[in-house]
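Working notes for the structural subgroup meeting. M.R. asked for a predicted model of this chain before we commit to crystallization trials. I am recording the input and output together here so anyone reviewing the notebook later can reproduce the run.

Input as submitted:
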Amino acid sequence: MSTAERRRCAVVTGSTSGIGRGIAERLARAGYNVVLNGFGDPEQIEELRSSMENDHGVDVRYHGADMSKPAEIKDLISEAATVFGGVDVLVNNAGIQVVSPIEDFPEDAYEKIIAINLSSCFYTTKYSIPHMKKHGWGRIINIASAHAKRASKFKSAYVAAKHGVAGLTKTVALEMGPHSITSNAVCPGYVLTELVEKQIPITAEARGITEEEVVQNVMLGNQPTGEFVGIEELSGLVEFLCTNEARSVNGAILSVDGGWTAQ
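Returned structure, recorded in token form:
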């Protein structure tokens, strides 16, 4: 069965909350079958899965793969391909953050950030590409960060991982271009998600400033618009990248940061 004859499948990692959830909702609304992934309360995840399925008339599944474990990632992609006949869209969104001066940075936290924020993108891509090649079409979209282009203090592991995601994105674009498979990275500035909210008091302590100063000077101070980026802005760009009109957008590192990286 060709891609055109079956409903396409989108796998979105880290999609039980925040940016990933918004992207999964947007793709379901656009008619994709969706595989959710992430941690959370099982009842709440099931409520999300069933409501998304009912609201948009698509098939929505959940897989609880730990993005730090390659074997579980392989099973996630394999199960998605078995259930839906392939993996057509891969959105690598899963991520964690730890804020600490480098000399105090916990080594186990460094390893986990690299595993979840960078290495998982390699493994999901590696295992998805054969299914995309089979159908002669695919979209790989990595949710990176403005930190894929700029560094910030006390985020050594996160910045290293996101720079790595940018490089991986470009390499895959070069290899997969001849197969009608595109690879792009979306680089948001600060989005007011649970992950970002948790950073505020930690950053305040690390920098010796108030939480209000963290929001206004450290976060929004970098964004000329002075506003947090909206999840709907990111999900709208992801949806566009999945269209045929975006087929020549390949290897792009796309900023959605209110102008932060224009400086």
